[in-house]
Specification:
It is a single chain. With 267 residues, this protein is an alpha/beta fold. It has 2 domains: 13-40; 52-250, Peptidoglycan recognition protein-like (Lysozyme-like, 3-Layer(aba) Sandwich), CATH 3.40.80.10. Helix content is 38%, strand content 10%. It has 11 helices and 8 strands. The chain has helices at residues 11-15, 20-34, 37-40, 55-58, 92-109, 134-140, 173-190, 211-215, 217-228, 235-238, 241-250; strands spanning 52-53, 69-70, 76-81, 119-121, 127-129, 144-145, 157-162, 197-199. The strands form 2 sheets. The chain has a 6-stranded mixed sheet with strand order 1-5-4-7-3-8, sandwiched between helices. A two-stranded antiparallel ribbon has the order 2-6. Strand 4 (119-121) and strand 5 form a beta hairpin. It binds zinc ion. Zinc ion binds at residues 80, 200, 206, 208, 259. Belongs to the N-acetylmuramoyl-L-alanine amidase 2 family. Residues 62-210 form the N-acetylmuramoyl-L-alanine amidase domain. InterPro entries: Amidase/PGRP_sf (IPR036505), Amidase_domain (IPR002502), PGRP (IPR015510), PGRP_domain_met/bac (IPR006619), TAT_signal (IPR006311). This is N-acetylmuramoyl-L-alanine amidase.
Length: 267
């Protein structure tokens, strides 16, 4: 059972509210709620946690060495695109194949210990765990795993890869909504404001996450703020000194970061 399913009682459950099943479900919901310190602090956000598919479910390989769990949580979220094809296969199978291909590329070609990013959002709006333990640490609301998705930011940010190439197209609506839900959940868990959502190009010399998705980030911050029930404050729009310095120093470069899957790795 998914966490989100706990918040969608069936008509049958409503008709017979004190079944053993509903009592057990309620107990689990209470236990899950107790693990969310920010929820207990009375924040406005009360949406169900998104259904995030863990590494085991999509068939991840073991990491080549233990994933490092950091004592700190993230300071921000960084949005990427995978620069893979804008497929119209929106299936879970495709999402799983993508996750495995990314892991294979990151481990075998890049030499990393595991998938680089913490989470992946497929074109079909499936949300998957990337690097092992990212999901378990997200649920703590206090720690994160060290990642490999953005140079200089891998110990202080959560990286989200979005399947597709968003240089001239925007993501499908369902994928965008899944991204917003995921960002809101991450912000809620770690106590981050929605203004702390950035694009990869704000920190590294890369075109990632594509001009169109990058242009959507102010909207994404507002949509995440709305999900959190917080005021729409967006200091990141007004002041982005790191991004400005990078762009001044580098112009608008082609990516020199080999974060993208080579052609042919993903059928
Ligand atoms: Zn990127």
């Amino acid at each position: 059972m998914t966490f989100s399913a706990l918040h969608q009682p069936s008509a049958r459950a409503a008709a017979a509210p004190r079944t053993r099943r509903s009592i057990l479900t309620g107990a689990f919901a209470l236990a899950a709620g107790a693990a969310l310190p920010l929820a207990a602090a009375g924040r406005a956000y009360s949406a169900a946690a998104p259904d995030i598919i863990g590494c085991t479910a999509w068939g991840a390989r073991a990491a080549s060495e233990p994933v490092v769990v950091l004592a700190n949580g993230p300071e921000r979220i960084i949005v990427h695109h995978t620069a893979t094809a804008n497929v119209t296969d929106y299936s879970k199978q495709r999402a799983f194949a993508l996750a495995r291909a990314i892991q294979t590329y990151h481990m075998d070609a890049q030499g990393w210990i595991d998938t680089g990013q913490h989470f992946t959002v497929s074109r079909g709006a499936f949300v998957l765990e990337g690097r092992h333990s990212s999901l378990a640490e997200l649920r703590t609301g206090a720690r994160q795993v060290r990642a490999a998705h953005c140079v200089g930011q891998n110990t202080v940010s959560i990286g989200i890869e979005n399947e597709g190439t968003y240089t001239s197209q925007v993501p499908p609506a369902a994928q965008y909504a899944a991204l917003a839900d995921l960002c809101a959940h991450i912000c809620d868990q770690y106590g981050l404001p929605a203004s702390e959502i950035y694009g990869h190009r704000d920190f590294n010399a890369t075109s990632c996450p594509g001009d169109r998705l990058y242009a959507l980030l102010p909207t994404l911050r507002k949509d995440v703020a709305a999900r959190l029930g917080t005021p729409v404050a967006d200091p990141a729009e007004a002041a982005d000194p790191i991004g400005d310095l990078v762009r001044q120093a580098t112009g608008r470069p082609a990516s020199t970061y080999a974060e993208y899957l080579p052609a042919g790795l993903l059928p």
